[in-house]
Amino acid sequence: MENTLEKSAMSISIPKVHETEQLSKMLGSNAKPSREYEEQREIQENNGQMSLAITECIEKTQVKLAEIITHYVGTLNEKKLHFLGYPTNQDFDYDALAPLLNFHLNNAGDPFSGSNFGLNSSNFECCVLEWFANLWEINKGEYWGYVTTGGTEGNLHGILMGREKFPNGILYTSQDSHYSIFKIAQMYRMQCVTVGTLVSGEIDCVDLKALLVGHRDKPAIINLNIGTTMKGAVDDIDLVVQTLENSGFSHDQFYIHCDGALFGMMLPFLKQAPGITFKKPIESITISGHKFLGCPIPCGVLMTRIEHINSLSRDVEVIASKDVTITGSRSGHAPIFLWYALNKKGLIGMENEIQKCMMNARYLRDQLRDAGIGTMLNEFSCTVVFERPLDDSFSRKWNLAWKKNIAHVVVMQHVTIELLNNFINEFIQKRRIWFQNELRNPPCLADDIGAENCTCILHY
């Protein structure tokens, strides 16, 4: 169905080609066409679609620019109505921070020492870090961190510190880890060993032990997932530490980094959930700020034990600060967005939002199961995994993420019961047509989500 807003935005009267040629003759070869004429021709050349081309011949009028942005906002609002597969909270309001867009804010250098670039938000950044230090139970003076561009930069920094501590160390990470981990291993030219996973997506510590014993001569740098990308599985920190110890690795022979992109700040609010804390022998944690908290720009938080940053730190005279981050210049707006969100929500507000996400995720799981669709939901997770739709256009419409035989919905704050019902109803309707046309039964997903969650003819 065509976007009605898009149609209305495109209803602009455009001269026909022969009309423009006649106009050119009337004006003469040296005459300069009007701005309005050029803009109309630009739309015509793009088949009636709003052109984003940056032209050199004329400047776009303020009215024209506003029209383009208004049209774009309309398309985003339409897409938001079907945004289910990626863990970014779309339910936020930062209108109060609009005056800050009149400034370029740059947090260059160490947030704790500041810099000579006076237009910064280091004070906000340090407050955000203190909040997360309390969440993850590490005392002031024992931690260091900064606001990053997102979880991948946090992984870059955390694993780099592990490599600096153990230059000949081996990076161990599960096969369900985020793709950034394998990219980082390649960038740092680290030996990377991929560990198998359980059906849940959690790291398989039996396989981990066998691999550790086989490489006992080198230190271990472990990446743990506090919520895997596809299944939302949480690696058991305590079991991994026990596995390291049982494999002959003392605490001075391993470095554990935790990729907590989404669940790193959600689990501490869930009763009975495994603890994510620096009281355990972990060395660094990263989360994505734009996921659970919600932020209009990608950002994240990296926190580590302060003793690990010395090898990366050096004084830079031009900024009168220490260079210890992955990037030099960093967004000064991102820390303020995070600070604002943390203050606006409060601890009780965040706990309520988490409970709502978990409740709605269970609702989606139950509704899909009742419809005979193979579905899995890990404990302490809001990532609902199910059989991959046969029609990729359907998956694209609902912004579903998929991998091989499975797809998922990540139930965030903006995902309401009404939105889920719309998705469920369409999925069930389309699914009947797919299997009827294909003349086949639902696929077996026992290897992907477990036999108890599969709805094929063998397991349902």
Automatic annotation (TrEMBL):
Alphabetized InterPro entries for the sequence: Group_II_Decarboxylase (IPR051151), PyrdxlP-dep_de-COase (IPR002129), PyrdxlP-dep_Trfase (IPR015424), PyrdxlP-dep_Trfase_major (IPR015421), PyrdxlP-dep_Trfase_small (IPR015422), Pyridoxal-P_BS (IPR021115)
Residues with N6-(pyridoxal phosphate)lysine modification: K291
This protein's UniProt keywords: Decarboxylase, Lyase, Pyridoxal phosphate
Gene3D superfamilies documented for this protein: Aspartate Aminotransferase, domain 1, Type I PLP-dependent aspartate aminotransferase-like (Major domain)
Residues spanning the signal sequence: none
GO biological processes: carboxylic acid metabolic process
GO molecular function: carboxy-lyase activity; pyridoxal phosphate binding
Cofactor(s) the protein needs: pyridoxal 5'-phosphate
Protein family (similarity comment): Belongs to the group II decarboxylase family.
PANTHER family: PTHR46101, SERINE DECARBOXYLASE
Protein name: Histidine decarboxylase
Phylogenetic classification of the source organism: Eukaryota, Viridiplantae, Streptophyta, Embryophyta, Tracheophyta
